[in-house]
Amino acid sequence: MKAIRWIVGFFWVWIFTFVVDFIFFNYVFQNILGNSGLARQSDQLRTLMPLMLLGEFILAVFFTYYFFKIYKEAKLLILRGLFFGFWVGFFVFGWRAVWAYYLFNFQNGLVWWMLILGWAECIIAGTGIGLIGWIIPNLFKSALKNAQTEVAAEAASAPKETPAPEKVADAPKAEAAPPAAGDKE
Q1: By the number of CB atoms within 10 A of the CB, which of 4, 36, 69, 133 ranks highest?
Q2: At what angle are helices 77-103 and 108-157 packed, to 10 degrees?
């Protein structure tokens, strides 16, 4: 069950972050990135898509691993996922936005959009992984409970057959050995 929720959560984070980054950086920010002079053209971005896919893969592995490592047996996983995404997004993308503002000649609007987009992306990914971490164990618990009730119902409806006790032949009892010559009674 833990492996299933880890795998489903991993694929959720990987696909979600890849799709959001692909849409925003290739279509929404295309004019801002092209006008900044420091970013690649959108055609070059599409040719480097495997690199972006690898980066999103690594983010998804660490995001999922640490979420389920920290919140193994926690309650309220959806809320914990929201907070986990909030703090991961704040530190990772806040740090990235500060360095992008400091190092590059981007427009300030682009730096703020990158911060907001990354932060919202982590919050939604964290909430989704918390939802997955809560739903999958509950699905297995209900399936297990249904299977147990079916087995109990079958056992209750079946006629009770008691096996006949086996008769054991009376074995002759061994007589006591005669006392040895030097023994006193």
Answers
A1: 133
A2: 160
Give the distance, in angstroms, between the CA of residue 115 and the centroid of all CA atoms in the same chain: 25
Q: CA–CA separation, 7 vs 181, rounded Å? A: 81
- CB-CB contact of 41 with 157 (8 Å): no
Mapping DSSP to helix (H, G, I), strand (E, B) and coil, where does residue 71 land? coil
Reduce the secondary structure of 97-164 to three states and give it as a string: HHHHHHHCCCCHHHHHHHHHHHHHHHHHHHHHHHHHHHHHHHHHHHHHHHHHHHHHHHHHHCCCCCCC
Instruction: Tell me the CB-side half-sphere exposure of residue 63, using CA atoms within 13 A.
Output: 38
Overall pTM surpassing 0.85 (yes/no): no
Could you tell me how many residues make up the chain? 185
Q: For residue 167, what is the DSSP state?
A: P
